[in-house]
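Sample pair:
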Amino acid sequence: MSKTVILIPSRLSATRLPGKPLLKINGLSIISNVFKKAKEADIGEVYVATEDKEIIDDVNLNGGKAILTSNKHKTGSDRIFECYEKLNLLDIDYIINLQGDEPNIEINDLKHLNKLIKLHKPEIGTLASEIDDQSNLNNENIVKVITDIKIDDKNFPIALDFKRKVNNTNSNIYHHLGIYAYKPNILKKLVNFEQTNNEIKNKLEQLRAIDNKIKINVGLAKFCPIGVDTIEDYLALKKKLEYNSWNEN
């Protein structure tokens, strides 16, 4: 049976919103909200990989598991690989890298990605959603992926490129979600490559894979989570999630 582990990279020193993993939504930190969603997906074991003891304490306090990693990492992929090595897990077929700043990630989309990787066995798998607002094509904060064919519920096409800005003459453009599923040997290969100029220029770590001829397959997500990059993002998401929670009760 295929085994997957979910690793969540997180750190307090984010450039645009320092300390964001510990900001509270519904009385629970953002990072512990993400951990909770990952556990509810029931895909495999879940761990937070962090350089900060404060995050470890928060995750442990809320019933999660966290591993202390180096503060020298340049990307989340590098951080989760160190975490994976420290855990010394056996018989893992895929490592899912789930972003620690998307507490409203849809559980069914996580399950869909896990189903796709079990079926297609890609080197790297990821998710993307439809772009409803064409103005987002020029929004540099929304990463776009261009695929070789149109994505549907069942297929898993290849990513041709990732961009921050695109023109609408491109076809098969989607809103990329910051989630990856790696074969362990592919992740090891990836973190041993030097960062590429393309990756550094665009601030997109997935371009390191593209530049080194590693294929990334893209599945369709039904829901596009809101990432927390600014205080405005946080306040908007906090209002939305706490309103939804109040209505459910």
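The radius of gyration is 17 Å.
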